[in-house]
Amino acid sequence: MCGRFTRMYTWRELVALYRLTDPSPPSNLQPRYNICPTTTIDSVVERDGKRTLEPMRWGLIPVWWSKSLKDMRLSTFNARAETVATKPMFRSAFKRKRCIIPASGYYEWHTERGGKQPYYFMPKAGPILSIAGLWDEWKDKESGKTIKSCTMIITEHNKCVAKIHDRMPVLLSPNQFELWFSGKAGTEILKPAPERMLQMWPVSRRVNSSRANGDDATLIDKVAA
Length: 225
Fold this sequence. Notes:
- The structure is a single chain.
- This protein is mostly beta strands.
- It contains four helices and twelve strands; from the N terminus they run βαββββαβββββαβαβ.
- The chain has one domain: Alpha-Beta Complex (hypothetical protein yedk fold), CATH 3.90.1680.10.
- The chain has helices at 11-18, 91-96, 159-162, 177-182; strands at residues 5-7, 32-35, 40-47, 50-58, 78-80, 98-103, 105-112, 115-123, 129-139, 146-156, 167-169, 198-202.
- The strands form two sheets. Strands 3, 4, 5, 6, 9, 10 and 11 form a seven-stranded mixed β-sheet that branches. Strands 2-1-7-8-12 form a five-stranded antiparallel β-sheet, with no helix packed on it.
């Protein structure tokens, strides 16, 4: 699974990679080193051939959800590639509402002597990982507010990631963006990333807490495992 990630990219890097049509950068595009589920994250969507960056809740709420947000107790921040096209929680969004979630890197945990050791994964080349995602819009009947939300798709590990975890996010390459947004690509695109795409190292166990300061750049510093 992927339950924590980082954001250090710039607006210029986003525009260049995704060919965004937004006229100006969002005012809150600041580095974040401990992004957790249910918080607001960046999501790239495409409508009528135009791509924009939109803030969304990380943890998908399907449009048909009839209960309150408090009753959304399922973990919907990840969707498994093997069942994303058929599972009721995700299948509608898979057909009609796809997105890409940009990340600078992400964390995974490995059980070692003394407890769970976090590791940080980031690209060897380029500033951004493009994670395949789904999004939807849901209206809260109690407040009348419309909430946009999203999920990351995860798949089997590659050999690099297997040393730490048995799952990894689906990482799209630029030549796959159009196929993903348009729906021309199905589940066959949801494969493990190439072996040489990522690098990793152990980081402070302070990351184990979701309350760790998200402004603290030292969270991604290499430590002795």
